[in-house]
Write a structure and sequence with these properties.
Elements: H1 21-48, E1 53-54, E2 64-68, E3 72-73, E4 76-77, H2 79-93, E5 99-103, H3 113-123, E6 131-134, H4 140-149, E7 155-161, H5 165-174, E8 178-184, H6 190-212, H7 225-231
Parallel strand pairs: 1-8, 2-5, 2-7, 5-6, 7-8
Antiparallel strand pairs: 3-4
Helix pairs in contact: 1-6, 4-5, 5-6
Length: about 230
């Protein structure tokens, strides 16, 4: 009686461990090259924005500050977004900015980041006439392009968390906005680590956006909101 031994299952050829020393060496080099390529966009962000990061105390004066959305909790700014808005309030009170452009997601009727940001700013002393809302800031690139092409912003202070601000500055520079960034510090909690990890992957998309410069998801006509806000007195 013949005993049939089960056949050994093998994975696809590309997934097999090389049997020869030369094959293992080639695999190691391939892995190292992949790691280098994966880190290139993040390295580009760090090098290209090295001289563009400031604090609320020493950022150069600009007429416009751009605050990027960071989520809502029960219709109000999340703690991370509130910290960004607090920095904008500090800059406004110090006379370093004149107008705040709040840019975020309003793709659903029940989710409105810009209006929640506006309400927070007015509650903390920024006049409503000095706030401009961009309701189609669906991602960082869209917000930067729209700041330039829709609202006519040529120079701005950008406000975001420290793990995101380099990407914001690099993309706004690529979109034609002369930018300085204020990176708001945050507690190193789960959200912070998630955001930092996400930036490693987002850096790749940022590099592609900077090279190919696609149109935002929604462009629309020019809006005079920033010009009007600047013309309004304090």
């Amino acid at each position: 009686m013949r005993i049939h031994r089960p056949r050994r299952l093998r994975g696809p050829r590309w997934a097999r461990w090389p049997r020869t020393r030369a094959g293992r060496r080639r695999l190691l080099w391939a892995l190292m090259a992949g790691c280098v390529l994966a880190l290139l966009p993040a390295t580009w962000l760090r090098l290209s924005t090295a001289d563009r990061l400031r604090t609320t105390a020493d950022v150069p004066r600009a007429e416009v500050a751009v605050v990027f959305g960071a989520g809502l909790w029960h219709g109000k700014p999340s703690p991370y977004l509130a910290h960004r808005l607090d920095a904008a309030v500090t800059l406004y009170r110090a006379g370093r900015i004149e107008v705040v452009l709040v840019t975020g997601d309003n793709s659903r009727e029940d989710y409105d980041e810009p209006d929640a940001m506006r309400s927070y700013l007015t509650a903390h002393g920024v006049p409503d006439r000095r706030i401009v809302s961009d309701y189609a800031g669906f991602d960082t690139w869209d917000s930067c392009v729209r700041a330039k092409r829709i609202f006519g912003v040529d120079r701005a202070v950008l406000i975001s968390q420290d793990f995101h601000i380099r990407r914001a500055v690099a993309l706004c520079e690529a979109a034609g906005v002369d930018s300085y960034g204020v990176g708001v510090a945050a507690e190193h909690d789960v959200t912070w680590y998630y955001g930092g990890t996400r930036e490693l992957f987002a850096a790749g998309k940022a590099a592609l956006d900077a090279v190919f410069r696609p149109d935002p998801r929604f462009l629309g006509p020019r809006e005079p909101g920033v010009t009007r806000a600047l013309a309004a007195g304090r």
